[in-house]
Amino acid sequence: MSQRVEGPTKTFTAGAALAQYRRVRLDSGKLAYAGASDSDGVGVLENATFADGDAAAVRLPSAEGTQKMVAAGAFSAGAGLYAAANGKVDDSGTVPVGIALEASGADGDIVEVLHAEAMPSFTLARSSMTQEDLSPYPLQFEQAKVWDAPQTNIPGTPATDDLGLIDNTFLTGAPTIETGDLKAAGATTRKTRISWPVPPEYVAGQTITLRLNAGMKTTVADTSATIDAQVARRAAPNTDICATAAQSINSLTAANKDFTITPTNVVPGDILDIVLAIAVTDAATGTAVIGQLNSATILADIKG
Question: What is the helix (H) or strand (E) element at residue 120, kind and residue range?
Fold first, then answer.
């Protein structure tokens, strides 16, 4: 039957003869001395035990007031105390225990301590965490490059086969990636390139989706306008792992277009090399026909 303790002490079963005022921990369900590197102490022994199986009261770390402890050596009043071997405390170490309120002259002295032992620390494997599906990782347009010259930022004015980064004026509109005016230009495709380092929290082989929000800026094309993505792992640059074909964006209402990335061999530490292409076919001579990408986001399954 489960229970709870609201007082300063709790009774445990000792696993051996143990001295009074020593730090203790549970070892296979029984009390044992806490060592210098043990951060899982359950408290300080209130009474000595003499054999395996003896009952023992332990003053818990959550108890109010001060606590008597056994020194492992000499230290001064006010010293920060740390766990030492065999349930003792000293003024050096790696596991904080509290503050000495009186000096110790030698190993074995009993001193008053303001007990401030940290709660036990645990290492949790990432694989044991709950998976969070489709966590968003926005791609920064400022990192976009000329698609076939990745050492070069994309231009501010789209031209030839390159998309452009358009400011749209701070506090008026967010930056967008655009085709420029392609009215009456026939069939034209313009591209940009951007990379995504796969983060350590990504779960290898799990879902990755590239979400592009796009549409036409002022006027739809009289024939068609599409957006497409090609994605390659830097570790396997000859294979396009984007499984979704080009999608229409020939609307003045921007919409999300999702592209499925085949995740079979994608692992944390990979870099995904992404080329985005907007293709417009227009033969009219009316108002400006401009394809516009408003945002690009990676959605990935992660742990941690």
Answer: none
CA distances from 52 to 14, 42, 83 (A): 6, 18, 24
CB proximity list for 9: less than 8 A, separation 6 or greater: 43, 46, 57, 58, 59, 60, 63
Backbone torsions φ then ψ of 117, nearest 5 degrees: -65, 135
pLDDT digits (tens, 9 = 90+) for 140-149: 999 999 999 9
3-class secondary structure, 74: coil
What is the DSSP secondary-structure string of 213-246?
Answer: EEEESSS--SSEEEEEEEEEETTBTT---B----
Q: CA 201, 207, 208: angle at the middle one, nearest 5?
A: 80
List for the chain the helix, strand, coil content (%; round to 5).
5, 45, 50
Residue 279 near residue 219 (C-beta atoms within 8 A): no
Interval 197-222 mean pLDDT: 97
Q: What is the pLDDT of residues 4-22, one digit of tens each?
A: 788 899 999 999 999 999 9
Rg (Cα) of the chain, in Å, rounded?
33
* Measured CA distances, 280 to 81, 186, 213, 291, 296 (Å): 72, 8, 16, 7, 19
Tell me which amino acid residue 137 is: Y
Neighbours of 190 (CB within 10 A): 24
